[in-house]
Amino acid sequence: MYSQPSSLLNSVYKSRSIFLQLSKSHNLLFETR
């Protein structure tokens, strides 16, 4: 099942980066308001 832990780490990193981008855009939205 866990033959490729790197892929798991990659997915976690991807989701984290997406979350960071979302929070960034959210902050921008609140700043421009």
Topology:
Blueprint: H1 5-32
- Assign the structural class, choosing from mainly alpha, mainly beta, alpha/beta, alpha+beta, or little secondary structure: mainly alpha
Q: What is the terminal-to-terminal distance?
A: 47 Å
Q: Kindly report the average pLDDT value.
A: 84
Helix/strand order: H
How would you characterize the largest beta sheet?
none
Cα radius of gyration in angstroms: 15 Å
Proportion of beta-strand residues: under 5%
Low-confidence parts, pLDDT < 50 over ≥5 residues?
A: none
Helix content: over 70%
Number of strands: 0
The coarse overall form would be rod-shaped
Number of helices: 1
**Overall tally of structural domains:** 1
Short description:
This protein has one helix spanning 5-32. The protein has 33 residues and is mostly helical.
